[in-house]
Structure formats: structure tokens, C-alpha cells
Amino acid sequence: MGGMRKLIDAGVHAQFVRRHLVDTRGAHGGAQFFPWHRALLVELEHALRTLIDPTLALGYWDWTTDADDPAASHVWNTTLLGGAFPGVCIPDGPFEGAMAQVETPHCVVRNFYARSSRGMVRRRFVTPAFIGNLVSNGEDSWDDFTAVAERIHGDVHVAVGASINARPVGDMLPTSISPNDPAFFAHHAFVDAWWADRQSLIGNDYTGFHRQRAVSPDDRLDVFDSSVRDILDLPCVTYAPPVVALTPEGRGFAPDEASGGGPPVAFNFNSAPRVDTEAVEAARDAQARGVGMDDEAIAAAKAAVAAVAQRVAARGGGRRRPANSAAG
Fold first, then answer.
1. What span, in angstroms and rounded, lies between the C-alpha atoms of 198 and 200?
2. Which one of 59, 83, 236, 244 counts the least CB within 10 Å of its CB?
């Protein structure tokens, strides 16, 4: 985490945020979602290794293990991503008071109560069984796989950026500038691991459409001066199995149980709040529209998500996400 903070303070991190800002439509809304974001992750890791420490690697947050109560996850402790309190700068940890430069200078904001039971109120994420089913079902087209992944990945953006209706909105929610928050990279590295798992199972199957345009591996990702094929052919993208420390109750370590955990749980809004399904779907729709997706694409993504959920339910929970054995 210290390496990332050095990139932020040196202004290098802002260059990656600007790429995401200027090419939001290229990064979202179809088949390019995975290769575009992998290119961003690989180049950021390269910056960490060349400018800070050659032994560094990007870590990922397997938020499915914290799906039921993500605000209480140990990733928000003072040695990892740091804390959060609605409408204010990051209060502690490696990114305490971190300043973003895009689009205007401001401190990075998260709108939820970190290290708090139900500190994201009614926000929950999909389960390991859902991701395992998504990744392992080779019958899904690339279009469906990407549509599901892009839609559900937005849940984390919304939860971190706007679980609490405070101003300013947290940096993770305006999708175009969401890399301002270092949590973006831990989140997207996990999402990229889904693709790595799929590649290990069925290989590259890059086909389909991006914003109603048929895609080809020869399509250019201009902000990276690369083609999609260049990203597909990367030999070095692998992920170690997740390191998950669970309490007897089955969730990630509470802050006072984790190394460097920081203060104990500060709030307990409700031990089992009702998840507002309509609100979740509305937030997903709003984020999709925010990156320019039309109603037809949104409807297709909804249907693809529902299909995975039905498969998981039919199999009584399904399998967990497979994990590659090598660290990248």
C-alpha cells in the first residue's frame, strides 16, 4: 500500500485516472471491458515495479467473502485500504488524506462507515458461488460473461462511493474518475481474476460486440497504444489463491481481530437489514447509463445476471471461484 501512496503523491497515479476518464466509453459497455481494464492494471503494476520496488505486485480484494457485510471487511483496516466516513477525506491508513488530481484537486472520499457492522447499510455483494458459476460455465458467450461481470462489479463502486447519501459523492461512484480511490485497483484486480480463471478453463473467446460494434482482437486500445490481441497474449497475468481469514461466523476478520486492524466496530445499524432489490437494480441501471449504455444493453445484462442466479439456485449454491496457483 505504501508503494501506491508514493505513486499518488508523485502524481503518477493521476495519469491512470485520466486514461479511464478520457476513454470511459472504450472501457465500459461491452466486450472491451476486461482487456481494457487488464491493460490498466498491468501498466500500473509496471509503474509500481519500475518506480518503487521491483518485487511489488497488485493485490486484490475478494469481496465475495465479505458479501454479506462488506463494510466490516478487514480490507478497511489501517494497514490495507484504510477507513471511511461519509463525505470526508480518508481518515486513516496508508491513504489518509490522499489527494486526487482528476478532474479537479480534492481529497479522496468514500461514503460509508468502514469497520462497522452494516456500515454500507443495505448493500451486499454477490457470493463466491455466483462468481464460481459465472466463471466455470463455458456455455456462456463472451458477451454474456462480460455483461454479467460489468453489471455486478458496479455494486462495489456504488457501495464504496454512495452507500450513504452524503456530499460530496465518493470517488468510486462517478465511474469515469473511480480510479481516484486506490480501492478501485484492489476491486478490479479481483474482477480481472475472474477472466484469468475463465482463460485457464476455456482459453480466449473474445467475440461479440462493444457498443453495438462487432469486435475483433485487432481492435486498438489507443490510450495504451496496444491492441486487444496484445492483452489477450500477455503470458504473465496470474493470480494466487485468495488469503481469507474467517471468523467462526464465516465472515472476514473484524477489525480488532486483524493485524493492524484499527479501532473496533463503531456502528451496528442493523444485524440483518433488508436488501432493497429494486434499489440495487436501479443503482446498477444508473451506473450503466452513466457510462453510456443504452436500454437494450442494460436489459440484456439484466437477463444474463438473472440466468446465472437461476443456475446457482438450481445447484444449491454452486461451486466457488476456481483459483490460479501462481502469483502474478
1. 5
2. 236
Stated as kind and residue range, the H or E segment containing 99 is: strand 99-100
Q: Which residues of the chain have pLDDT under 70?
A: 243-276, 317-328
DSSP 166-197: -SSPPTTSSGGGGGGSTHHHHHHHHHHHHHHH
CB contact at 8 A, 86 and 113: yes
Q: Is the pTM of this model over 0.85?
A: yes
| Dihedral sign from CA coordinates of 181, 36, 214, 134 | negative
Q: Give the Cα separation of 306 and 148 in Å (integer).
A: 9
Proportion of the chain in helix, strand, coil states, percent, rounded to 5: 45, 5, 45
Sequence-distant (6+) residues with CB within 8 A of 225 are: none
Measured between its terminal Cα atoms, the distance across the chain in Å is 17
The span from the CA of 32 to the CA of 207, in Å, is 10
Instruction: Please report how the helices 128-136 and 183-202 are oriented relative to each other, as an axis angle in degrees rounded to 10.
Output: 40
Kindly state the cell numbers that stand for 121. 447499510
C-alpha cell belonging to residue 144: 454474456
Query: Sign of torsion, CA 213 214 220 224?
Result: positive
Distances (CA, A) of 265 to 74, 180, 312: 11, 26, 32
What's residue 326's pLDDT? 33
pLDDT at residue 299, rounded to an integer:
92
**In the prediction, which pLDDT does 257 show?**
33
Neighbours of 209 (CB within 10 A): 17
